[in-house]
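Annex B. Sample input.
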Amino acid sequence: MRPASPILLTAAGAGGVAAAGLGSGVGPAASAPLAASLALVLANPALPSARPVAVFGGHALAVVAGVLAAFVLPPGPVAVAVAAAAGFGAMLLFRVVHPPAVASGCLMVLQPWPTGVFLIGAAATLAVALLLHTRFSRDIGGAAESDPADGSLPAPAGESQ
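Annex B, continued. Sample output.
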């Protein structure tokens, strides 16, 4: 992929999510965590945090953690901090770490219900798109940069494994 391609695709994806958010009444703020997800996945697709299961699972767990924090705590910085920590802790527990998804949990404290549904749907769409891209890239002879079975990363250039 040419260096400008991930930048343009991230911009297009973030703009599309923001437009969909506006059209659905959720607002453009929901595009922030998904734009970060797109940037991470497009810049480093071989990372374990760029796997489709990590993208979807990370956003879903963070949304659940954020909704629970918003339900239990009054709105404010403490609720945002608890949502972020609980979401990240759940990602670690379930081994679907996707750092940009932490922001999804924070958004749940700030603008809960419709945003959560929107984010989970958008994350699912992103995960399916990534899965299809990975599948079809391999089918047409694209080189896979990591072994999806063990999530290992390739050795840096000039080093042997």
